[in-house]
Design brief:
By secondary structure, the chain is an alpha/beta fold. The chain contains eight helices and eleven strands.
Length: 245
């Protein structure tokens, strides 16, 4: 897989129930979306594109030297917005792998973004993602920490069998925290966004279950650290402190 055939798309929208205007939240002098864009650029994986419904977000990214594409229609999830951006960016279909990087991960390590692509070296894998072992007991039953259960297929990779907000599996461990970044083969992304919402997806409120229910294979590379996801004002303060170091 050549880096020339990889596109990282960062979907970003202004509407957020717990932290309105989140992508433009100031973190030490720059909008959060610019911090995420810089992390994606540092991963050195081909093209990086911010897909957004907001002229303000697009303008901030362009002012920092990045590329942004406006999405003019509503989307049910980030993956759908990513697919629209892909089609507009690459109608010639040169891109083979698309990375969906959430726009609220300003502390994600560039090497973690690169690690997400590793499972796609196996031709049987449709979608790749990341996981890290849970070490804090309180996270095992925290519904805001999405867990992944899977079969080991190597020292640092799992084949995903299920995702849940509950503790899975039920035994003593290990348990894994799922990190919400996805690397799709192009055909897998195109198939996924055309599938209807699935029963388990709606019950768990986890869109990746739609792919599993459709028989698609998701493998997770295991990494050492969980990036901070910014969903609340408290998270934002933590991000400011971490990035000020």
């Amino acid at each position: 897989m050549s880096d020339d055939n990889v596109l990282i798309v960062i979907p970003a929208r202004m509407a957020a129930s717990r932290l309105p205007g989140k992508p433009m939240a100031d973190i030490n002098g720059e909008p959060m979306i610019v911090h995420v864009w810089r992390r994606a650029m540092a991963a050195q994986l081909g093209w990086v594109l911010v897909a957004t419904d907001s002229e303000e977000i697009a303008g901030a990214v362009r002012s920092a030297g990045g590329e942004a594409r406006l999405s003019l229609r509503a989307h049910e999830n980030g993956s759908s917005r990513v697919e629209e951006a892909l089609e507009g960016h690459d109608p010639e279909r040169r891109i083979e792998v698309v990375v969906n990087l959430q726009g609220d991960l300003p502390t994600i390590a560039p090497q973690s973004i690169r690690a997400c692509l590793a499972p796609l070296g196996d031709g049987a894998v449709d979608i790749a993602t990341l996981a890290t072992e849970i070490t804090r007991e309180e996270e095992r039953d925290n519904p805001n920490v999405v867990k992944i259960a899977g079969s080991p297929v190597g020292p640092s990779r799992l084949r995903a069998l299920y995702f849940s907000r509950a503790r899975i599996p039920s035994g003593p461990g290990p348990h894994y925290h799922h990190i919400g970044i996805y690397a799709y083969r192009r055909a897998a992304l195109e198939r996924y966004v055309r599938l209807p919402p699935s029963p388990l997806e709606m019950q768990e409120r986890l869109e990746q279950l739609r792919a599993l229910e459709a028989g698609m294979r998701i493998d997770a590379a295991i990494v050492d650290a969980v990036p901070l996801g910014v969903d609340t004002p408290a998270d934002l303060e933590r991000a400011r402190a971490l990035l000020a170091r």
